[in-house]
Amino acid sequence: MRGAKSYTRAEWDEFFRALEALPEKPRNEQRLTVSDAMKEKRAQIAATQAKGYTLEEIVQEAGRKGIDVSIGAVKYALYRPALADANSEVTDTRGKSRGRYHAKCDAHFGLRGRVGFRRF
Questions:
Q1: Has residue 6 been placed in a domain?
Q2: Is residue 12 situated within a structural domain?
Q3: Are 97 and 115 within one domain?
Q4: Is residue 60 assigned to a domain?
Q5: What is the rounded average pLDDT of the residues 82-95?
Q6: For 19-40, what is the mean pLDDT?
Q7: Is the pLDDT of residue 109 over 50?
């Protein structure tokens, strides 16, 4: 069985100096995960849906533009709870506060802001 790989401090220092010397990559060349892209363009997706397009049609358009994503990945990225939801109090449908504990539970189980699933 092989041992863990190890390198000299000089090799690590050289590597980290090389990282520091790298120029900033142009924004249009930076890669984004589906999750990051949906986070940045959530409003644009909602605006497209407001024009009458379904998520399935939006995903098909992405495919025509060379972006191979599944509708499930897009839904997960769009609708997963944000951290802010877990730190805020939850109000039920009658306007009654349910407290921070319930907010954290609701965020964990995919509920957002109010009791029940939030739709976009």
A1: no
A2: no
A3: yes
A4: yes
A5: 48
A6: 93
A7: yes
SS3 71: helix
According to the model, what pLDDT value does residue 3 have? 87
Tell whether 70 and 104 lie within a shared domain: no
Are 39 and 71 contained in the same domain? yes
Residue 39 phi, psi dihedral angles, 5° rounding:
-60, -45
pLDDT single digits (tens) 37-81: 988 998 999 999 999 999 999 999 999 999 999 999 988 888 876
Residue 89 maps to a domain: yes
DSSP tag of 63: H
Angle of helix 55-64 relative to helix 34-50, nearest 10 degrees, comes to 120
Portion of the chain with pLDDT greater than 70, in percent:
66
Q: Which domain holds residue 40?
A: 32-80
| Pair (68, 91) in one structural domain | no
As a whole number of Å, the end-to-end CA separation of the chain is 53
Distance between CA 55 and CA 69 in Å, rounded? 11
Torsion of CA 44, 49, 35, 102, to 10 degrees: 110
Contact at 8 Å (CB) between 55 and 70? Answer: no
Give the contacts of 56 (CB within 8 A, at least 6 positions apart). 71
